[in-house]
Fold each of these.
Amino acid sequence: MALLRSVVVGCGSYLPRQVVTNADLETRVETSDEWIVQRTGIRQRHIAGPDETTSVLGAQAAKAALDRAGLSGADIDLVICATSTPDHTFPSTATQIQAMLGIETGFAFDLQAVCAGFVFAVATADRYLATGAAKRALVVGAETFSRIVDWEDRTTCVLFGDGAGAVVLEAREGDGTTADRGVLASCLRSDGRHRAKLYVDGGPGSTGTTGKLRMEGKEVFRFAVGSVTDVIEETFRASGTTAEDLSWFVPHQANRRIIEASADKLGIAREKVVLTVDRHGNTSAASIPLALDAACRDGRIREGDLVMIEAIGGGFTWGAALIRW
Ligand SMILES: CC(C)(COP(=O)(O)OP(=O)(O)OC[C@H]1O[C@@H](n2cnc3c(N)ncnc32)[C@H](O)[C@@H]1OP(=O)(O)O)[C@@H](O)C(=O)NCCC(=O)NCCS
């Protein structure tokens, strides 16, 4: 049966200029390169300078994705920016990116699902494209978590980094089979009862301040390995594919141990796992498009490959999407 699929026609990313290594952090808090590498797999992260706001990072990534697709801003009629670190409370970062790219048609909005934001944004854009409500969507994940991290708290500040990634999705007719290019299936979940395990202790409607990130790391770890596999299995089921059909597994990059435990549980071979957490740290909603772009640029992900993206974030929110590249 013919239907509209959301096909990835371009991918791009952008990282701030400044690199902060684990050794640099040893001078700020009581920590060690050995502890950070052993517990998380992180070796370095990029940190935004004062002029590198979330919209600036996002616009650079979006421009790279458009260039890769051979398109310009005039070809886009939907911009979704997944972020928890917007430049301002409002207007949305998506509208700022829209303006920076000279996009004057269609509509733009931010989507907030913390680290799961990019998966939620891809699934949301897919619905607009599949119904014909938009033709080409720019889906951006952009974050400056360095601005909301408590730099005195060694249990969290070593984990996060800044950056942005983007994909251009284009509505194209498919046959309705798993051979189609595009988003084949997605599955989203959330459960607000877990708020206290990962949250920011401020906001415009409560304290009137931005607040700082707080986390019960062990609890998040346990939930991440336990639940993210459910949405992945459901996505496989919904699409009629299995872990064996997968070309690449591109998970949210928070912790190497979480990623490898999830892959093992799902029977996904380690060589199919794309890992960038060592170089980027946890960049929240930006981590998946950053990893996708890295794997596209080094020639791993190619047209026709079957790619599973998945993430979990504060809330909790979690989800997965299967894409025929
Ligand atoms: C945060 C995380 C790396 C901590 O690893 P862990 O093995 O659970 O470590 P613990 O929290 O049990 O801490 C172990 C010890 O290391 C210490 N420690 C914590 N941070 C440290 C740091 N940066 N450097 C050195 N020691 C540190 C703790 O104080 C604790 O010391 P104690 O045993 O004397 O009390 C891990 O829990 C994790 O990755 N959780 C998930 C986080 C995540 O992915 N969040 C984002 C989701 S989107």
Amino acid sequence: MTIPVEGRVTKRRPGSAKGGLAVADSRPVFRNGRVHGLRCTVCRNPSAQRDLPWCPLCRGRLRADSFSPSGSMWASTRVDIPVGVRKPPFALGYIDLDDGPRVLAHLVVPESVPIDTRVTVTGVEHGDLVAQVLS
Ligand SMILES: [Zn+2]
């Protein structure tokens, strides 16, 4: 179930639609061609999550940062079962952004791609990052 909240679509448990507690949406934000997240002011560790209280590595303070949309595929897979609004086949994978964190993205082409393939995040679909292979 998706509900527009503060200008963006987010996933929430059905209970929140009926007055229950909202669930934090930990998915990265893609805006103005950049992936937005946090970076530690002490150890420089990047994170695509936006609601961390402190750095998970050193407990240092975090500040907002944005990252290049390009990176290398860390792992990917093809999915052959329906999941939510997604109809099979579709593919998703983890991308190590060049100057940022590892993020999960759906792939434009519904096939897994080799490790270290160059990819770039191109947008958002159903609140999830979408990426395509760079030619
Ligand atoms: Zn840190």
Amino acid sequence: MIRIEHQLPGDMPGHHYQFYSYHFGAPDAGGPHVYLQAGLHADELPGVLLLHRLRQRLAALEEAGRVRGRVTLVPMANPVGMAQHWQGQHHGRFAAGSGENFNRHYPDLSAHAAQLLQREEMTVKQALLTALAALPGDTLLQRLRHSLFTLALPADYVLDVHCDSEAVLHLYANHRHADAVAGLAGWLQAEASLLCDEAGGMSFDDAIVQNWRRLEAGLGLSLAIPFAATVELRGVADVSDTLAAGDEAGLLGWLTGIGVISGAAGNAPAPPRAATPLAAVECVTAPQGGVLVYQADYGQWLPAGSQLGYVLDPHSGAHTPLLNRHAGYYFARVAGRLVNAGTEVAYLAGEAALRSGMLLSA
Ligand SMILES: [Zn+2]
């Protein structure tokens, strides 16, 4: 195992951040290269715990000569977000200075990379990395994004491990990779897999795929696009050794199955549910402001018109029911119980497309 320290000079003199990547397998190893990161939204800790455990397991497997491919691991990817405490509360999703989501605005390198590929003899990955290195890194946020993207672009498989507010384990990926998603969903027993052609917003995993898709369109080629997915490792409070041990076993099975670790993986378990379109996710909003009281549990299929809970107006005493309009698998909901009218509070994976354009929340 090689540990590399990545330096991120801050936006003010005297400010400095760093994060660490861990590298397993020989650089010239023949097997596939996997990149895994956690904590991009800094306080999403189930993945940080999982990748910490995986680091220890991979170190032992490497000692035993069982790492056939390469693994790059970044267990705690966002030191900038980790430092954002105000008045006793932590805020890890948006950068304090700009308000930008840490998991949006990854760069479109395709135009520059296409020029490079037309001019010079190089691989697509080399062209993307060269185009990335040419971008300005004037701000801390740019430097963080570029550092992480530089680590991920060489990989054949990219997993960005997040968690939701309160949720079952679920995945986001591209339609293009439906078979690979089913394999990962089986090993992790993901209860929903949400697929799209383009999610919008250039989140980390989607930006990997979109760069390759745009290169395909620009060059008129068909390319073997790396698999990239976001893993939502349940809810923000689901930080437990028991859950992490099960997820670790799942990831090791997956890594063995794709040939990164030697040994017999056995057959991938069947995923609990077939993948559905991300565009078919219903975002149920609070019909009025007040106190949100949930009644139905998430982690179940609900027919249209089910009462997920209600919003209480403590002044009038009115209970306004929270209803889903479409049938779907209820996979996530917000943890906060104080809501404004119009706030998205619950998410159901349906089967028929309901939405278009930007498919991710802010
Ligand atoms: Zn996240």
Amino acid sequence: MADRDYLDWPFLEPRHRALALELDAWAEGHLKEAHGSDVDAACRALVRELGSGGWLRHAIGGADASIDTRAICLIRETLARHAGLADFAFAMQGLGSGAISLFGTEAQQGAWLPRVANGEAIAAFALSEPQAGSDVAAMQCAARLDGDSYVLDGEKTWISNGGIADFYVVFARTGDGGGEGGRGSKGISAFIVEAGAPGFEIAERIDVIAPHPLARLRFNGCRVPVANRISEEGKGFKVAMATLDVFRTSVAAASLGFARRALDEALTRARERAMFGKTLADFQLTQAKLAQMATGIDAAALLTYRAAWMRDQGKKVTKEAAMAKLTATETAQQVIDAAVQMFGGQGVVSGETVETLYREIRALRIYEGASEVQLLIIARELLAGEAA
Ligand SMILES: Cc1cc2nc3c(=O)[nH]c(=O)nc-3n(C[C@H](O)[C@H](O)[C@H](O)COP(=O)(O)OP(=O)(O)OC[C@H]3O[C@@H](n4cnc5c(N)ncnc54)[C@H](O)[C@@H]3O)c2cc1C
């Protein structure tokens, strides 16, 4: 049984505790069985199940509700502990529709958010490009105004849900970036592009170590109505960063879920594995490792729920979200690696829980800002503060 003490921490309210316990029970009933090897079909099924279970409505905000970052974090943490793909399906519904929840018009919110919430429409967030990953300001995908529509040309890559999404929030350059050669964070706008829009195609599907739908997208004279632009022209960078401020913290929460599962597995293994006439748990080397794992998880959880709580208080969380993501993803990688080590040969057998976790955690240190990028964000925020 995973540690639940953190549910009583002052960052969380009684409704959060109830939500986490209710979801845990739901996940026990719904996520025990694997959803098959067809990752597209598995994701579609999970989105539908999470929608009909009522969980996806927590992933969205909009006219009727504001985004509850702590609820999103608890849901991601709980789902990740049970099944990485379920966490992915939930997270992408939130990340993919986040710009609409935060900045969309009433019409945009009405058209998409209810369908995202009930699992009828699958969402995607398309920011990265082949030459613009960590360096978002190097974005080249362009949107040119032509009458009552924009014409999009360019590519996006590493797009989660690429190939199965019903709509993509796409960031493209509508003006000069403000820097050398037109690059920079200015002059970027956000658009809703529906799957099947003429001039939009899936250029390539990408296989990764923890399989989930992922693709490179191509726009070739793709027309998007002006009504599909989210927020004002040129405000796309702000839209993207505000969305990431919510979901970056939730990446930390997902890491906590993976790490807690690894610790549970390691505790069971340590108690049960007989060696040298004792059990693995009897050795102080093992005990020290378990203690480090649990301490690292709690430290990461404190940073994570602090950032989530601050955001729910309406405070700026750029630095705190970066600290949470950096610490939780790096800690989870170490915790999971230690669990694999305790399992010995069994730890690297395909399909073993700790082996799956080892593959699942890796990308979280890269996406939504690699660890090095989080360090730079933290330092930038520190240095921008008032001098003593
Ligand atoms: C599984 C997966 C899912 C993804 N899903 C999405 C999605 O849904 N939507 C989307 O838009 N993008 C998505 N991404 C893209 C992701 O955000 C980028 O991969 C990430 O921003 C890194 O960009 P890059 O891959 O181009 O690596 P690069 O920018 O080339 O960076 C490579 C490495 O350089 C290092 N680095 C970066 N900056 C610095 C620095 N200043 N100093 C020193 N070292 C540095 C980091 O270690 C980094 O990992 C996804 C990626 C993966 C792997």
